[in-house]
Design a protein that fits this description.
The chain has about 300 residues and is mostly helical. The chain is built from 13 helices and no strands. Helix 10 crosses helix 11 and helix 12 packs antiparallel against helix 13.
């Protein structure tokens, strides 16, 4: 869930949201660790949301109404058996006090349930498909829920797709009889990724002026005031990675930041970022500033 691309976006987001010169560096030594912890908070909040959905449909079950592919679905019920105690959460949502976010999507669940009932398939394979379809197309697509999560923590906007993918990917692998078959992560599982992100962030903080100097004259058709702020943050972060991480191939760096630019900036940003970084790599390598070590890398 917390892969290096996700971590890179956290670093870029922090640079984009703040003026580096004005940041209190003493409070930022564990910034990426704290930011990564909030990602896990969101995961556990979404697991709680799944449990609340299952409980809700069980509570409204009657002789005249049943949404059995939720209330009697072992894949929904499975989340009630998970032991979430090993991760110390900083943020918890009491979904029992926020049932309007379930009410908002209730009719969509009922409609999807009707489709599956009419298919006359009631095996576990069908119930797994229902869970995945309802999570992907109903829960993850709820605008009301998305806005609520954004209000709870602005960083969750970028975390939401990663958390959703993690849940769907792992539910497909579980043994319904074994709660431990769904891996509940802690920060320890991502210590290498978090360290990479914190080191990258710290290098930007320590070398901000130098990194900015490397951009001077690199964008002849764009002055610094005209470059989109997010593109500027992407460029600064990519230069730091090129200069201070000798084991990461330049090709990996350039591809990662092009994809990030496509996702988080304008449609033309990928091409713009590609051109700037490509020229930077050539020039900084010629000057001996980019030194890569390891198999298949520049030495």
């Amino acid at each position: 869930m917390l892969n290096r691309r996700h971590i890179r976006t956290k670093v870029i987001q922090s640079i984009y949201s703040n003026s580096v010169e004005l940041l209190d560096h003493s409070t930022l030594k564990t910034y990426i660790t704290k930011s990564s912890s909030t990602t896990l908070d969101l995961l556990y909040c979404m697991i709680d949301f799944i449990k609340e959905i299952n409980m809700h449909f069980n509570n409204i079950e009657s002789k005249k109404f049943s949404c059995s592919f939720v209330s009697q679905n072992p894949y929904f019920f499975f989340f009630n058996k998970l032991n979430q105690k090993k991760f110390k959460r900083k943020q918890i949502i009491n979904w029992d006090l926020n049932l309007n976010y379930i009410s908002d999507i209730q009719s969509d669940f009922i409609e999807l349930n009707k489709k599956y009932v009419e298919s006359k398939k009631d095996d576990n394979e069908s119930k797994l498909k229902f869970f995945i379809e309802s999570y992907s197309d109903i829960i993850a697509e709820s605008n009301l829920l998305y806005e609520f999560l954004e209000d709870q923590n602005i960083n969750w906007v970028n975390d939401f797709p990663y958390v959703n993918s993690f849940i769907i990917k792992n539910i497909e692998k579980i043994d319904l009889q074994n709660p431990n078959s769904f891996h509940l992560p802690s920060l320890y599982d991502y210590q290498d990724e978090v360290k990479f992100g914190q080191d990258l962030f710290n290098n930007i903080l320590a070398n901000n002026e130098e990194l900015k100097d490397h951009l001077v004259g690199r964008t002849p058709n764009w002055d610094s005031e005209r470059i989109a702020k997010i593109d500027y943050a992407i460029l600064i972060t990519s230069i730091a990675e090129l200069l201070y991480f000798p084991t990461i191939p330049p090709k990996v760096t350039i591809n990662e930041y092009i994809e990030i630019a496509k996702e988080f900036s304008s449609p033309s940003s990928g091409k713009f970022i590609n051109g700037v970084i490509d020229n930077l790599i050539k020039d900084l390598t010629d000057k001996g500033l980019i030194v890569k070590t390891g198999r298949g890398l520049i030495s």
